[in-house]
Specification:
The chain is globular, with a radius of gyration of 25 Å. It folds into 3 domains: about 160 residues, 3-Layer(aba) Sandwich (NADH Oxidase), CATH 3.40.109; about 140 residues, no CATH class; about 100 residues, SCP2 sterol-binding domain (Nonspecific Lipid-transfer Protein, Chain A, 2-Layer Sandwich). The chain is an alpha+beta fold. It has 20 helices and 15 strands. Helices cover about 40% and strands about 15% of the residues. The termini are far apart. α14 packs across α15. The strands form 5 sheets. The chain has a 5-stranded mixed β-sheet. Strands 3-4-8-5 form a 4-stranded antiparallel β-sheet, with helices on both faces.
Length: about 450
């Protein structure tokens, strides 16, 4: 214990704190001094309103890439509390998106309340605890990079609360994917930690593949992040920025109304007034996994398809896609009755690191069909980096450094390249000023752009 100067030691507040017993003295929440009891902590979380809970040590290898961000927000973390709140199945499954979105927001508020209650209860026992929140607001200044403090899904998986399905949602063994996740970070270790469940509740029924309007989910395991964020998150994140640019680009009110239907204008207003409104989340709606959800699907799969899946497939609704993307091709082929709206997704990398990170996320397999090429990128200026991108057999690999023989070499000033990607600089002018230099066929750069549209 650090001793203060005699004047401060005599202060009534200091004397009162010095006289307090340590938090662990006779406290049933502690297994031993300085170590929390797993069973007692679990009981505290359930009494705080969690529907299930698990605990993860901060040194878990699966969380290594999160450690720096967590520590920056909460110094000296020892463990994470991961908990879930159930959502109302029928509300999420409703084709009326107002009903589903209202339930998402209700459950999100419930997760916030539970996390706050857990953190407050722990503080009453002398444990430092941080509840960083279940969803928005986020560290949005980092957009389009990592905007969250804690990635909830990996923590939930490590805490034994489920496994990731092919639709990239955590499926709880009992509750299915009708859950929202919440974390609490604490500065005290726990006497026992939970481990991932030994099986994946995902049934691999591929109903999420069938229901997704943009084709973002592939039965073979690939996930088109760009397709999902462009449509489902149209009214917030990058989609909102794209809408703002529609306002700016319009010459007058009539021009704006021609470019943006009134329904989209009021949809943006609704998201601003009442919270972000998701356009789909159909992958969650149709999923039959989880013991509490599974019975009706087991009893009558045809009925589940007729009453849950088909209404979402048949719904006439705009689907937002980037022009030339795999999503656009999928909608036109699979859902010709759903109007296609070509938009931007607002994803413009703010750094070369962001550009490289986004390549696998935005890759379009359909656009890459028949392309077999190796690209060497060398960035100069403020951000120096060398990267190899290989597009082959409908796949994409990104590695640090230059490997193999390049079909196209791109040397670019980092700031100029980012300005080019963001539409603030033209390629021809950059080539003439030699701020971007190509060695190989320029057609390959066009092919590269088709594989990674924004």
């Amino acid at each position: 214990m650090t001793r203060l100067n005699p004047r401060l030691e005599a202060h009534p507040s200091v004397r009162a704190v010095r006289a307090r017993p340590t938090a662990e003295d006779g406290d049933p929440l502690f297994a031993t001094p300085g170590v929390l009891d797993h069973a007692a902590l679990r009981d505290l979380c359930l009494r705080s309103g969690a529907d299930d809970v698990g605990f993860v040590d901060i040194e878990r290898p699966a969380l290594a890439e999160q450690l720096a961000d967590i520590t920056a927000a909460f110094p000296r973390p020892h463990a994470l509390v991961a908990f879930v709140k159930r959502t109302a199945v029928e509300a999420i499954r409703s084709p009326a998106r107002s009903v589903g979105n209202r339930e998402f927001h209700r459950a999100d508020d419930a997760v916030t309340d539970v996390g706050d209650r857990i953190a407050t209860a722990l503080r009453d026992h002398g444990v430092r605890a941080l509840h960083p929140g279940a969803g928005f607001p986020m560290e949005i200044g980092a957009w389009p990079g990592k905007t969250w403090v804690v990635a909830h899904k990996p923590v939930a998986v490590e805490a034994g609360l489920g496994q990731m399905g092919i639709h990239r949602n955590v499926i709880h063994p009992r509750f299915g994917n009708f859950i929202l996740l919440g974390p609490v970070v604490i500065d005290v270790p726990i006497d026992r930690y939970d481990r991932p469940v030994s099986f994946n509740p995902c049934l691999e029924c591929e109903l999420c593949v069938a229901a997704c309007p943009t084709g973002a989910i592939s039965a073979s395991g690939e996930f088109d992040f760009g397709a999902c964020i462009t449509h489902n998150y149209r009214d917030f994140l990058g989609g909102f920025g794209d809408w703002v640019e529609s306002v700016v680009d319009a010459r007058d009110a009539a021009g704006y109304r021609t470019a943006v239907p009134d329904t989209e204008t009021v949809s943006v207003w609704q998201s601003l007034a009442f919270g972000p409104q998701y356009k789909a989340a159909y992958c969650v709606s149709v999923c039959p996994a989880g013991e509490d959800v599974l019975g009706p699907w087991l009893d009558d799969r045809r009925e589940h398809l007729h009453t849950v899946v088909k209404p979402l497939q048949d719904k006439v609704e705009p689907v937002y896609v980037v022009a030339g993307s795999d999503a656009e091709a999928h909608v036109r082929r699979r859902f010709p009755h759903k109007p296609v709206r070509q938009v931007g997704n607002g994803i413009r990398p703010a750094s070369i690191d962001g550009f490289v990170l986004g390549l696998p996320l935005l890759f379009q397999r359909g656009a890459a069909d028949g392309l077999d090429a190796t690209f060497h990128f060398r960035f100069t200026g403020d951000e120096r980096r060398a990267v190899t991108v290989v597009v082959r057999d409908g796949g994409c690999t990104v590695t640090e450094g230059h490997h193999g023989d390049a079909d196209l070499r791109v040397t670019a000033d980092a700031a100029t390249w980012l300005a080019f990607l963001g539409g603030r600089a033209g390629l021809v002018g950059a080539l003439l000023r030699r701020r971007i230099r190509l060695r190989g066929s320029p057609r390959l750069l066009l092919a590269f752009g088709r594989c990674f549209p924004t």
